[in-house]
Amino acid sequence: MILSAQASQIRNLFLISKCDECIQASEKIEASSEEFNSYQLCQLYKILSLFEISQFEEAQKQFINLIQEARQKKGSLIDQVDLLTLSFYQWELCDYDSYECEQLNEELFKAIEIYKSDHKLEDLNTDGVYHLAQAMYTFIEYFQYDSNFECIEHLKRAQQLLNQKLDQEILFLMGWMLDYLGKNEEAIEYQLKLYSENQYFPSICNNISVTYKQMGKDDKQEEFLLQAEKIQPKNIVVMHNLAINYNQKDNQLKVEEYFTRSLAMYPNNSHTHYMQGHILLMKGEHQLGMEVLQKGIQVNPNDCNIYELMSLFDHSKFQEYMQKCISIRPKKSRYYSLMADRFLSLQQIEQSLNYLNLALSCKQSEADYVKDSIKKVVCYRTLHNYQEALQLIVQTLEKIKTFPNSLWGFQICKIINQLALPSLQKISILDSNNSRYLQKLDEIVRYILEKAKQSYIEGLKINPRFSQGHNNLGVIYQHMNMQEEALQCFLNSLEINPQDYQALMNIGNIYSEKNQLEEAKQWMIKSLNINPKNKDCHLNLGTIYIQMKKYKEAEQSYLRALDLDAQDFLVNYKLGCLYSEVLLINPSDIEAYFNLGQFYSQMNMFKEEKQSYLKILQIDPKYFQAYEKLGNLYFNMNMLEDAKQNYLKSIDLNPQSAISYFNLGITYQSMSMLEEAKQCYLSTLQINPQFSDAKKRYEQCDILLFKNKVK
């Protein structure tokens, strides 16, 4: 592809961030049939310049006009300039609106297909612009869903074939794509290479700052952000990133400065309201944050980011906000999935299933597909629809089995098996016809295990002193129910490395399965002596103690595991089972009910959590901690009046509870009762002067009350 002198001049202005001059120069160029491609390229760089100075709506409008002009001039013909126009526009649109970018990617795909049909295969193989278009299409199609690096190979091919034409644009795209794909080290190499050649390339300094931030190099991040601002002071993204940077440094004057400048320059850009509102909400300024977000909605009633953010902080309008998002972006699975979560937490299973079906009908990443499928299995099991649950498990396993990372697939199989095991047991008893599904599930798991087993055996032939390899092979033998082979592998690992705590734990697991509990316990303790932070070992030791009827020791083991990972589903589940078992032995055990309530809270089982605390109050109406937990529960459900009443009862029973005063203060603040909130924070500090969060909120209330008086 050859750029005309006119197009080269316009491009050169863009390349050094002279965006206003680029726009002005391109506006003087008129379209002609003879030089239309030159005109189209000039207009393309004008559109890119509009994006760079944050004239997003004008850029989109100009793009639509340009495409219409191109079709009027060229009819159905698609040439290199058309592919370049669509590809470069996608580059800018992706950062501004990834959802619209995804929809437009279908047009890029159609254009590529038309172009392919008009060219021979050997010509396409040597066509740099074609490979650039393929790179952009592939990236947009997969980057939100899976780490597909085909786009990088296409870009490298384009770079070779174009022979320094569009070299700076390709370097930029290479760094940009690699950053999105999580390859920060590789991304920064391309970004710094472009920077060394042309530090004024649009957005390169901003992108370098983002990559450095992800690499944990905050000093470098600010340095390049400030340079980005100097090069292009009209770029709203740079202003927002600077505001975020200064917020993290608690420099609120600078935060306010950049948001004020952004709003003054672009009063109709709702993303500033979103960013500012988000920061305020995270600082606890609920009322002010929501007011800012509402202003953003007035500016742009279709800003889904704002609706989603408001749904997190105003539970009473969660469904209203999510439905608004769905009406605006009906092909985005995330909104359906969030609605499903909401109904699942309320135990409205049928509604949850409906939204999960809608989520699964949309384009999703493999991780989201598995996540929503597991939620659907949970719904089916809750409804006792075991047949559907089993079918879905098999379908999910079949879909993910084809992915190249078999060990990752194996982990997913383990998770699904753990979640589904009670259902599988019930199915085999209730309906013998399900054996074909069980057989299919078994085939898939055995296939993955056999592949992994062979890989480790071959690897150990090459390096027989690789202790971790012996241990991993032993784990596979365990899952294949080949316990003696597994035991030998673990002993081999210990012979090479006596400090292999995983092998020690796995030997304990084998003895546990043999019901040799004392031996199993001793192996687990040996493992924990070497690595006391092994969560799985604490979990396994807890299960052994339960089998030995040593419930206090079991609880201690589970709580140690929970200290290491408070969000672990299995640890919380095991704790719940333990407390339930204790209550069967002693139905008046208040501590067991309290702990069971905390377990239900972790599982988002709010109805059951509430019943646990109410049961405590039936046994002992003066157990103030139960009122405190009920207050937390009601607050999280946005039932602020009920939360307030329970916190007041907790304080009445225990006037020295600093946390109850503090939580009551947060509740009053959420109800916009600032004087009452301020008094609660003061009471908190009188009980505990070191309570720093109470001090911060007390000062916030002071500021908000002052602002209200000024108004």
UniProtKB/TrEMBL annotation:
Task: Specify the superkingdom.
Answer: Eukaryota
Pfam family membership, one:
TPR_8
UniProt xrefs under PROSITE patterns: TPR
User: TPR repeats at which positions?
Assistant: 270-303, 467-500, 501-534, 535-568, 590-623, 624-657, 658-691
Listed A to Z, the keywords are: Repeat, TPR repeat
The name this protein carries in UniProt is Tetratricopeptide repeat protein
- Organism listed in the record: Tetrahymena thermophila (strain SB210)
